[in-house]
């Protein structure tokens, strides 16, 4: 029978909040599981409590130590808040160093996927594999985010209807049902939750219309074209925030990139298919090595 400590170690819904001091910034983080460390960078308006527990627990079942954290000044973390990917990448590197993790699997969702790409480009020595979820590649894109995403993401607060539009595929009954199941899992944790990101501040960072490029970073694109680090992008066939078509347009130029695309899904495919996505990530990490 598992002890209480074992249950805390294995369950995202029960993981205790922990803190680390980084040069005047106090970052909140949670760690579950044992094994290869996987550090996850969260989405726009995301906190430690916007990761689906079924997805995190699935990663633990794959033999991974899963670390989530709140960006400085957001959630339970202290410091000056920003969505500048270069600053967030430096904080992520500092967290990896402060926890003594060595080389990690680096994951990122949406904005967090941009952060992960910046860190891969600037500190490749810290990254054994990169796992990107529902994010955009650097540089000009062939398909822009939909105005629907911008307009919906700017609405304060959260609700099932709003999250279904943002993260799932409203045209699919299967996806809508998955949105309800995910929302229930996300609500299980009651104690020690991270406060929501302030809506007005977040809206100001987002702007009011899609931009091309969404992620202007020629140096990061050049690094992706030259990297030997295995890169996996998990996407969906109808991502209104960061269309997966933009990754396929670069597929022949990125030598280590693998693409996994889920059908009838939206901006959070790992919430619609949490166990399947976690299992694929586990297989990717175990079987794919850096290019020679």
TrEMBL record:
SUPFAM superfamilies referenced in this protein's UniProt entry, alphabetically: alpha/beta-Hydrolases
GO MF entries: hydrolase activity
InterPro entries the record matches: AB_hydrolase_1, AB_hydrolase_fold, AB_hydrolase_sf
Sections of the chain in a coiled coil: none
Annotated Pfam families: Abhydrolase_1 (PF00561)
Highest taxon listed in the record's lineage: Bacteria
Record's keyword terms, sorted: Hydrolase
Name this polypeptide is given: Alpha/beta hydrolase
Organism classification: Bacteria, Pseudomonadati, Pseudomonadota, Alphaproteobacteria, Acetobacterales
């Amino acid at each position: 029978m598992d002890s209480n400590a074992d249950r805390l170690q294995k369950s995202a819904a029960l993981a205790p909040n922990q803190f680390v001091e980084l040069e005047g910034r106090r970052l909140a983080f949670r760690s579950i599981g044992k094994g290869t460390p996987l550090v996850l960078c969260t989405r726009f308006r995301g906190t430690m409590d916007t990761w689906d527990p079924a997805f995190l627990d699935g990663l633990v079942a794959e033999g991974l130590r899963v670390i989530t954290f709140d960006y400085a000044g957001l959630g339970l973390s202290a410091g000056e808040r920003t969505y500048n990917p270069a600053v967030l990448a430096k904080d992520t590197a500092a967290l990896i160093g402060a926890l003594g993790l060595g080389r990690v699997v680096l994951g990122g969702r949406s904005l967090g996927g941009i952060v992960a790409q910046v860190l891969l480009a600037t500190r490749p020595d810290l990254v054994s594999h990169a796992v990107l979820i529902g994010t955009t590649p650097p540089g000009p894109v062939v398909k822009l985010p939909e105005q629907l995403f911008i307009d919906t993401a700017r609405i304060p607060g959260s609700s099932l209807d709003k999250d279904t539009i943002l993260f799932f595929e409203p045209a699919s009954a299967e996806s809508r049902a998955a949105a309800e199941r995910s929302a229930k899992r996300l609500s299980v944790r009651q104690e020690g939750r991270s406060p929501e990101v302030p809506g007005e501040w977040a809206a100001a960072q987002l702007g009011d219309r899609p931009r091309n490029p969404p992620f202007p970073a020629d140096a990061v694109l050049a690094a992706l074209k030259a990297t030997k680090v295995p890169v996996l992008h998990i996407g969906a066939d109808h991502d209104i925030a960061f269309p997966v078509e933009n990754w396929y347009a670069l597929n022949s130029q990125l030598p280590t990139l693998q693409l996994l695309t889920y059908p009838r899904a939206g901006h959070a495919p790992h919430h619609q298919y949490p166990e399947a996505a976690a299992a694929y990530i586990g297989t990717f990490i175990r079987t794919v090595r850096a290019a020679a």
